[in-house]
Structures are given as structure tokens and as C-alpha cells.
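User: Modeling request: complex.
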Amino acid sequence: MPKRIGHDTHPFHFAQIALTLKPVFGGVPRIRSRMSRTKPDSNAVPTIKSDESTTFASEHATLLQTRLAETAHLGRDEALALLANSDEELERRLAERDEFARDEALSEQARTSAELETRLAARTIERDDAARDEALAELARTNAELKARLAERTIERDDIARDEALAELARTNAELKHRLAERTIERDDIARDEALAELARTNAELKQRLAERTIERDDVARDDALSELGRTNAELKARLAERTIERDDIARDEALTELARTNAELKQRLAERTIERDDVARDDALAELARTNAELKARLAERTIERDDIAKDTAITELRRTNAAEQKLHLHAVDLEAVNAELESFSYSVSHDLRAPVRAILGYARAIEEDYSAELCDEARRLLAVVQHEASRMGNLIDDLLEFSRLGRAPMLNTLVNMSRLAHEVMEEITTTSGIRPIFVIPELPAIRGDRVLLRQVWVNLLSNALKYASKKSEPEISVWATAENDNTVYHVRDNGVGFDMRYADKLFGVFQRLHRANEFPGTGVGLAIVMRIVTRHGGSVRADARLGEGATFSFTLPTGSVE
Amino acid sequence: MSDHDDVDILLVEDDPNDAEMTIRALRRAHLANRLYWVRDGVEGLDFIFCRGSFADRDPRDRIKIVLLDLKMPRLSGFDVLQELKTHAETQSIPVVVMTSSDHERDIAESYRLGANGYVSKPVSFDAFSTAIQNIGTYWLVHNQAPAR
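Assistant: Request completed. Predicted assembly structure:
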């Protein structure tokens, strides 16, 4: 039964084991020299980490040797127990070292990051956005590099440590196997089998755990790298997108310009080709078109000229006719004005120049009569009377003629005229003057619109005539009345005088026209002409009805509504 | 004392017949004793303003009435009327226009210029004589002139 190594084992036994195993572990001095060579670089972190692992492995190997030596005298079971304890410790210390190394690396990274950030902050104050972007980019690069280096170094270190551990383990195993083989001779199969089984278990476990840790570390590094890559990709994509948009705009503009150029060129070429190809056909067509146009224009021009000529001739003719008519009218107006002016002048001359000599004749005749009547015989006095009478008649003719002219031209007023009162006033006036009092029959007469002064003259002339021609009757009688006739009012004046022959009625209203001799009935023949003129100016008419010896009726019509 | 001193009636008339008839009518009414007759407007104004051949006339001699014809050679009746009526010392002298014209235009113009009356000379000598005598009687007998 082999004796197992326990806590109560005496340290003395370990020394013995080391001495016994010395020839077997030839590699130990190599490990020691390597360790002494790397020792001055212990402050350089990356190097010393790897070497520490190596040193640790060699120390572990030394420890194993020592313990093997100490346990040489022990049974196989005890040696295996001791080996198991050594493996556990190795594992623990490896974990501690890795943690330490990683923490230091992380600390270094943090310091570097802080430093870079500080520098970045300082530089940001002084620099623009571009500089900051560069600093950030630098930071990102540095971070990435550090991460990469950390990953590499971790992997490297782990690999070395693992390899060395494995190598050491292999060596230890080989040694242990060898010693076990040697001791197998001395020991039983059970102890060896157990040690081998334990060793296999330990190896598998170590391998498993190393693999797990490697995978974990690789995952972190890969995730970081992937994250960085993702960020870089996103940034690059964003910038690419921006630049693509810019480039697209430029490209589009250029493309459009190019397109326009191409289009223009194509059109030009097309036009050129069309011109080339269609020259003949087009020229023919154009020539034909031009000929047709010219012909149409010519025909149109001819027809337009014809039509214009006709229209123009018509217009000119019409214009000439109108002008001629206007000219004629104008001439008429001028003539009328001239005639009017002449008439005015004539009236003035007659009134002034003709009356003066008549007045003189009458005046001097009267002077002869007054101063020399006693010296004249009867015949001389009769002849003087004729002179006076004819001169007087001439004066009356002149005055009546002027009156006729004046009444014909006098401006007219339009007022409501009380015809009854007017007729009464006039009748009173003329009977007073003549001294003849006829029977006067006059019912109420309708009023009429007209010029009172002129209408008064109508009554004067008509009633004077009536009285004159009835005056030779024993009972002169004058009747006045009015009738309605359509839109007119007709006033009638009838006398029971001598009347007249209706065959000469058309001469009644002419100037200086008389149906009776002056020695029968005095008068100038102007009275009825004046009546007709005034009535006509009022828009009315006059008429007469008579029978010789049975009196006469003179009627004048006036519009009931208004005058002129 | 010349014939143009102490004149009551100044007759301005170019027609000698009319002048003679006028004077005859006035004489028969005993109104022509202090009448002076001038033949046109120039003489009329000379007489009124005491100048020319009438320079020796005493301007204090008040004319009671001017009988003025319109149609005269040289200065017309309108010219005389205007001159007479626009001077303060003569504008109160009564002027009656006596003319053959009964033209409305002449009547209106005469009154516009300040005439005191307008009479159209009748053709009939009786009517003429009556008109003249009435005028003379009115202005010489009935009318009262302002004090000088």
C-alpha cells in the first residue's frame, strides 16, 4: 500500500526527492539562465509578463522537483496527491498573473486615453472642427491599435504561457511517467494508474479552461474590432453618402449639361442631315409654297385693291355727297344769315331813312297849310290835301311793313295767355279809338300757351278788321268763340260786314294784298299778313270764310298743348 | 350875349328838315326861345363842354334838355351820350333821344348809356308835333334839375 503525501508530511523528505531527481530533469539549468537573462528588463511590461510566466513555470518545475525529491521516498499515491496540489496552485497563480497583466494594460490604455483626451481638449480649444475630427480619429485609431495590441499580446502571452505550461506539463508528465515507470517497478499498478488518470483529468481540464479563456478573450477583441469596424463603416458610409450626394449633384448637373450638349448636337446634326437630305424636296415645296403665296397675295391684293377702290369710291362719293350737302346747307345757312342781316339792315334803313322824308313832306305840307292856307284857292288846297294823304299813306305802309318785319323776328315768350281777357281788352281799346260801338258777343274762351304780346296783335288786327268792315252796317255785330279741333283750339271772329268773294280768299293773307279799295276801307293790306305770320310762328294756321255782302269769319288755330 | 348863352334846349340833329319841324313844333308851344341847334355830335360835345367854337360859353349856364338824334356824321348820338354821361359835371344833364328808328337795339343801347328818354319821331306831323311839345313842356316846365 503506498503512502500518500499529507499536510503532516515532514519538509525533510522533499530535499531528498530533489537530489534523487536531479539527473532526470536536465532542462532546469536552461530555464534558470533564461530567467536570469530577462531579469534586467523586468520593468518593461510586455516582455516581463511573458518571461514571468516562463519564470513561474520554471519555478513550478523546481518546486515539483523539490517535492518529487522530498516525496521520493513516498508511495505513488502520495506523489500523485502532491502533484495535484501543485497543479491547483499553478492554475491559481496563472489566473492571478493574467488578471494583473490585463489590469495593467487596461490602466495603461486608460492613461493613454486620458492623455489623448486632455491633448485633444487642449487642441480643440485652439483648433477648428477639422482638427478635433482629426484628434478624434487619432483617438479612435489609437484605441483600436491599443485594443489590437492588447488582444495580440494577450493571445501571444496566453499562447506562450500555455505552450510553456503545456511543455512543462509534458515534461513533468514525461518525467513523472518516467519516474512512475521506474517506480512502477517498485510500486503497484493501482498507484500508477491513478496518477495517470489524475494527470489526464488535469490536462483535459486545463486545456478546456485555456480554450474557454482564449475564446472569451478573442470574443472581446473581436467584438471591439467589429464595433470599431461598424463605427468606421458607418462613418465612412455617412461621408460616402455625403460625398455621393455632392458628387451626384455635380454628376447630375454635368450629366444634364452633357445631355443638353448632346441634344443640341443631335438636333444640329439632325437639322444638318435634314437640310442635306430634304434640300431638294423642301426647296421644291418652298418654291411651290412661295409661288402659291405670291399668287394668293397678288390675287388678294388685287381683290383688296378692287374692293378698297370700290369701298373708297363709295365712301368718297358718299363723303362728297355729304360734304356737298353740308356745304349746300352751310351755304344756305350763310345765305340765310346774309339775308337776315340784309333784312335787318333794310328794316333799319326803311325805318330811319324812308320815314324821315315822308315826315318832312307831311311836315312842310302842314306848314303850307297852316301858314298860307288863306292865300290858296280851293283847288290848291285839294291838291295839298292829296299830297298830305298819300304821304301819310306812305308813312303808314312803311310803319306797317316795319311792324310786320318786327313781329316776324321778335323773340317769343311762352306763357299761359287768358284769351277772353285779351279779346275784351283789345275790343275796348279799338271801339274807344274808332268811336264805333258794335254788338259784341263773346263767351268764355279757353286759355292757350303762347306769346301774349304777339297774340294781342292778332286780336287787334282781326277785331279791327271786323269792326272796319262791319262799321257801315246799321247794327254792326262782332262774335267771338272757340272750338276744339283735334289737338288744337280754334278761335273764330265773325262780323256782319261786307264780306268778300271767296274766289280771292287766297290773296287775303299776302302782304299789301287788299280785296277792297282804299277809299272804301282804309288799310295797308298788312294786317292779315301779320296775323298769319304770328299764328304760323305759334304752330297754328289761319283761314277765312265769307260771302260777299254777308259778313266774314276769320279763324286761327293754335296747338292746345304748347307753342314752338 | 351871344345866341348860345342861356340855352335851355340843345338840339343835336343833322337833318335840317327834322330840325326845322322840331323847332317849328316847339315854337308853336312857345318853348323854342332858348334853343340852340348844332348839326352833329362834335359840335354837340363842344357846346356842352364849352370848347372849340363854344369856348366862350359859360359852363354855369345850365342846359335843361338835350334833344339828341342818333344817326349823324362824325360822332354819332351814342358817342355824345357816352361822353356826356361819363363826366360828373355833365352827367346830370337830361338827354332825350329823338330818332327815326324804333329799333329795339337802339333803344336798349341808349338807355344803357344813360339816356333819360327815347322817342321815335312819328311820320305824322300832328303826332310829331304833339310829341315834341310834350317833351319840351315836361323838361322845361315840369322837371326839376339838381342845384349846381
